[in-house]
Amino acid sequence: MSWLDKIVPSKAKSQLASSSKVPEGLWKKCVKCSSVLYRPELEKNLDVCPKCDHHFRIGARRRLDIFLDEDNREELATDVEPIDRLNFKDVKKYKDRLNDAQKKTGEKDALVAMRGELNGMPVVVAAFEFSFHGGSMGYVVGEKFTRAAQVALEENIPFICFAATGGARMQEALISLMQMAKTSAVIERLKQQGTPYISFMTDPVYGGVSASLALLGDINTAEPGVRAGFAGPNIIEQTIRQKLPKGFQLSEFLLEHGAIDMIIHRKELREKMSSLLTKFTYYSNPQVVAEPDEIILAEEVNDQEVDKDIDQKNPAA
Ligand SMILES: [Zn+2]
User: Cα of 81 to ligand 1 centre, how many Å?
Assistant: First the structure.
């Protein structure tokens, strides 16, 4: 018990605690700039803080919902369910942990996969549900990822994965670690066939997932301010006994040091991703138009050429 606990009466403490909280419901406090934000406005802004641009963590279904076109969506591998093969128990039974996570999230496990369209281009997409057991990768995540990748392989359409995870699911031990090999193998098959696979990292991506599917994309991309690495910064600092540089493991740091290829803002994701994918495929997307700056530039060039033409034709002018 701290000295404060001893001198402040318990009723006053509970009042203190409740007065410092932002009321749940219509308002949400930004974890980065502490602004109190109106939820409907925040949702309209794709859960990006309008004050400081912080990208809030969002669930798998919302992620897929804001990424895919509204029509022609089909969920994949819905029949895959978690199995407690090892009858594992730590302070709590693994079975109970699974039940709790299923009740909390409404998902069977930590990955949702869908076949859908992005600006009319057929794609297969998988998204991690971080609030399900920390988005950890066990049998179901590996299996669903692999089945989704197989659909992409069979139909030769791009595969995109949104990772958000703490790493491998330790309650599944070796079975969990085997998913690294399984997902890596199917990504290799995509590469051999020339089917694009793009990894998009969202906060956070650690452990076995960063050591496999999250960094094996033809292009590895991330949201701004994402933390990603194999081991967390505290563990690294304790091991090497050195202070880590500022911003270590943030997506901006990773981009600067060549670990990832691109950072994409959530609001630009659909357009940038479809623009990227048209470069990888023969699919020409009528809805992807040139940037306004490029159009202006083209007009300027044309005007200059016309002026030059006129000058050549009328040397006296
Ligand atoms: Zn903010």
Answer: 37
